[in-house]
């Protein structure tokens, strides 16, 4: 079995600042998207149970290669970097098309794993779009994989009321949620190995594609400040009445 993990390099949210008319951060604070760490860990656990190999794939500028080094240090076997200077971080549809083309170019992939979303755009679109471009089945928001072999996967998909038990034939695409595992930390041996692994490079012409973005950003604005809260005082019966009146006035009841 060969498992591909899609990883994205994103800024650490605590280091992102509003720069007057845009968001700003230093390249020094870029890291693997936190949700993708769970996908990496699950790929490693499947490999440890069933054998096979793992490959991490990222699409992004030259700096994104560090995200691949980080997951190689955890135990991922191979890495592929689709490099584009005019990379658009906020166009998940275009990114999915490019990632799907790279997956087709890598032989014998049985399963694609990714985090449920990226912390920078929160679109949750990439996994389902990759599955659509590949014409593979998809299970989203997976909290547990109950069974997997070379032909099928049985997984629990998170719902508001619990979970659905889904069976899909392989190859397939799965996005995972945080509840699925606890990501491991890299070992010193893993870090040393990651520095030596040769990373496969794909350009967009190699994939027969261009990176024409389907999204244009017209402007950015910081979120509005939350209004100050109000404390209702009085006896419980009075407070309840005042609260109901306020909710009705705000058309919330």
Molecular structure report:
- With 253 residues, this protein is an alpha/beta fold.
- The chain has one domain (2-207): HUPs (Rossmann fold), CATH 3.40.50.620.
- It is built from 6 helices and 13 strands.
- The strands form 3 sheets. A 9-stranded mixed sheet has the order 11-10-9-12-8-1-6-7-13, sandwiched between helices. It has a two-stranded antiparallel ribbon with strand order 2-5.
- Helix 2 (65-74) crosses helix 5 (188-196) and helix 3 packs across helix 4.
- The radius of gyration is 22 Å and the shape is globular.
Strand order of the largest sheet: 11-10-9-12-8-1-6-7-13
What's the structural domain tally? Answer: 1
Structural class: alpha/beta
Percentage of residues in DSSP E strands: 25-35%
User: Which sequence of SSEs, written as H and E, runs from N to C?
Assistant: EEEEEHEHEHEHEEEEHEH
CATH architecture: 3-Layer(aba) Sandwich
- Note the overall shape: globular
Major beta-sheet overview: 9 strands, mixed
**CATH class label:** Alpha Beta
Count of individual beta strands: 13
* Radius of gyration (Å): 22 Å
How many H/I helices?
Answer: 6
